[in-house]
Amino acid sequence: MPEQQTNREAREARYPLDNLTFDLIAIIYEKSKALEAYDTYLVDARGDQYVGELLERMRQQDEDCIIEIQQHLGRLITQNPKIQKQVNRA
Question: Residue 48: what pLDDT?
Answer without folding.
Answer: 98
